[in-house]
Design a protein that fits this description.
Length: about 325
């Protein structure tokens, strides 16, 4: 459906940039913000006519949405009057929309001794919209639906530690702003961005209205895209962390103790006394990885995967070879 085909209530929501289920407080806040932006006194002569039309459309939409609660009550009363006569103990069927409209019109326009004017259903629907307190048709304002400037993207570099624990980052960037003369100038601003624990590379944090401004448009959003710095020890795979550990051959055969600091600040310790660490050996530590951002279970984490690389000596003496052969001969 094109914009021009939309019914007035749909345009009202679009003009105020609110959802259809927005609360009265949200509608009021949106109206105040737009009214401040598009008040004609705040615009230069060359753009004042456009500002006046938009200001008028914003006010019209706000007042119409305030009437909706009363409109719903009148329609509901009309529906009860038309649908309350069902027989046989069953549930009364819902009356057709035009019957509801006709009843509502009758409530507002019918006089004693007078007859309800005949009109097609579409005309009666317009009558009941007017009778219930709605504003006039919005055709003259449909071309003034407030547009929004394109979003402005900026990158936010984060360490793996910051993505693990979560943090707040201050990002300084340059945005376009419209001055009092209607001209676009550059302005350096700083936004504080909240990085949630477990966020991944490519995650986006949107700050509404913090992007570029354009004459005749709402300010665009600022979109901050998370970028992950390379870590010196860990590699991230989804919500898992991978660590590669190099083990000397003698320790792999006789026992080894592994200890390293985790991203969250704690320390991981593991002793290998009765295990032989062979090339390709992998140890999985459940819940030792990254937090699961937006996961179904609170506190869920990925795994820590430790991959072992056994380091063999570059050379052996004849005596060392003979000694190893004597020791390992019976281990096959």
């Amino acid at each position: 459906m094109g914009r021009d085909d939309k019914k007035p209530p749909e345009l009202y929501y679009e003009i105020l940039h609110v959802a259809r289920d927005a609360s009265p407080q949200r509608v009021r806040a949106a109206y105040r913000s737009l009214a401040r932006q598009w008040h004609p006194d705040k615009h230069p002569p060359e753009s004042r006519a456009d500002a006046e039309a938009r200001f008028k459309a914003i006010t019209e939409a706000y007042e119409a949405l305030l009437d909706q609660q009363e409109n719903r009550a009148v329609f509901a009363a009309a529906a009860r009057d038309d649908g309350g006569g069902g027989g046989g103990g069953g549930r009364a069927s819902r009356p057709p929309a035009e019957n509801v409209a006709a009843t509502a019109v009758a409530r507002s326009e019918k006089k004693p001794g007078g007859a309800l004017p005949c009109a097609p259903p579409a005309a009666r629907a317009k009558q009941v919209y007017s009778a219930c307190g709605g504003r006039r048709a919005f055709a003259e304002f449909s071309s003034y639906v407030v547009r929004k400037a394109p979003p402005l993207e900026r990158r936010v570099d984060c360490t793996l530690e910051e993505l693990c624990t979560g943090c707040r980052k201050e990002v300084t960037y340059t945005r376009d702003v419209v001055n009092k003369n209607g001209l676009i100038t550059k302005k350096e601003v700083t936004q504080t961005i909240r990085i949630k624990p477990g966020m991944r590379k490519g995650s986006m944090v949107t700050v509404e209205g913090a992007g570029d401004e354009r004459p005749g448009c709402l300010a665009g959003d600022a979109v901050f895209v998370v970028s992950e710095r390379r870590h010196g020890r860990f590699k991230r795979l989804g919500d898992d962390l991978v660590l590669r550990a190099r083990v000397p051959l003698v320790s792999a055969l006789t026992g080894w103790h592994l200890s390293f600091r985790l991203l969250c600040g704690g320390r991981f310790r593991c002793a290998f006394r009765d295990e032989v660490i062979f090339p390709g050996y992998v140890k999985v530590v459940k819940g030792g990885g990254m937090p699961v951002a937006g996961g179904e279970y609170k506190g869920a984490r990925g795994d820590l995967v430790v991959k072992f690389e056994v380091v063999f000596p570059d050379s052996l003496t004849d005596e060392q070879r003979k000694g190893l052969a004597d020791i390992l001969r019976d281990c096959a």
